[in-house]
Amino acid sequence: MNDSALNRARAGDQQAFAELTDPYRRELQLHCYRILGQVQDAEDAMQETLLSAWNALESFEERSTLRSWLYRIATNRCLNMLRDSDRRPTKANPRATYPPEPTRYGEALWLEPYPDALLEGIADAAPGPETRYETREAVTLAFLTALHRLPPRQRAVLVLRDVLGFSAGDVAAMLETSATSVNSALVRARATIDERGPRAHDRAPLPRSAQERALVAQFADAFERGDVEPIVALLAEDAWLTMPPEPHEYQGHEAIRQLYAQTFARRDDPHRLISTRANSQPAFGQYVKDPHAEVGRALGLLVLTLDGDRISHITRFPATNALAYFGLPRTIQW
């Protein structure tokens, strides 16, 4: 750490403070997203973390690294936000119908996609020996969905230990608890995460590879045409289709075929997909043409999880303010 910059920052030099903290802004935002599950909330938590650090800089005793100190502030800010907001997932749209009956009703989770553009420049920073996940894996929707089934404190412990590689002692200091308590929470959190099954990312095509581009292009072409069978042909046998925060979940060719057959049959206007990337996976902004104007209006965002040469999961998110972080407008020219 630059002692000169620290001394200048303590003397009130905001530029010196930015020099110290700017290298951590993106990774802190990603950390907050993992715990909170929403992009704007993560941005707010990161900004509040930096404001708190600026106001408390005199109390930083340098017994830990500046990075650890910032993570301590950020983690506790996120936990406070979760506790204070008492957020609940949005209820299912009462006007929507879901024939066929879903394969199952899962737990409704309030989770938004995270744009790959914000991942650029974030590397695994000095991971500890017990780190279990790389940055790319620890932002996939499969990981995030499993993570958000954990209580907030277990969620924070698992991210700090298994993703970021902080020691049990470091995490205990951050959360003002004992290392024994941290290890106990980690055991329970790992058991829940491990129940989610194998890591399909190991079998996914390389990002932006020819194999990935071909598979994604075939899906986009069939979806825009409203052609069910080519989509089904691209799916793994046990593929899932989910629509958070809706609890309805569909698995397998027949369930997804019937759902898309009804969805496409109700289409009155053309649809268009705009390619993007979310959570280290291929994704699309979904637009429908306005029947009264030459514009398309955002309906949501589709994220594809790939497994070899098949699609193993389609996740559809509603159109929220998170679209702006993907550079996706609310309307497009048709």
Strand-residue fraction?
A: 15-25%
According to CATH, what is the class of the domain at 202-333? Answer: Alpha Beta
Q: Low-confidence spans: pLDDT under 50, at least 5 residues? A: 89-96
Topology pattern, helix = H, strand = E: HHHHHEHHHHHHEEHEEEEE
The termini sit apart by: 52 Å
The main sheet comes to:
8 strands, mixed
| Name given to the CATH architecture of the domain at 202-333 | Roll
- Quickly count the helices: 12
Output mean pLDDT. 91
Q: What level of helicity do the residues show?
A: 40-55%
Shape: globular
> Care to count the β-strands?
8
- Return the structural class: alpha+beta
Q: Whole-number radius of gyration? A: 22 Å
The CATH topology of the domain at 202-333 turns out to be Nuclear Transport Factor 2, Chain: A
Give your account of this protein's structure.
The protein has 334 residues and is α+β, with helices and mostly antiparallel strands. Among the domains are: 1-87, Rna Polymerase Sigma Factor, Chain: A; 202-333, Nuclear Transport Factor 2, Chain: A, CATH 3.10.450.50. Helix content is 43%, strand content 17%. Strands 1, 2, 3, 4, 5, 6, 7 and 8 form an 8-stranded mixed beta sheet that branches. A hairpin with a 5-residue loop joins strand 5 (281-289) and strand 6 (295-307). It is globular and about 65 Å long.
Layout of SSEs?
Elements: H1 3-10, H2 14-21, H3 25-36, H4 39-55, H5 66-85, E1 104-105, H6 141-147, H7 152-163, H8 168-175, H9 179-194, H10 210-225, H11 228-233, E2 235-242, E3 248-251, H12 253-265, E4 271-278, E5 281-289, E6 295-307, E7 310-318, E8 331-333
Helix pairs in contact: 1-2, 3-4, 3-5, 4-5, 5-8, 7-9, 8-9
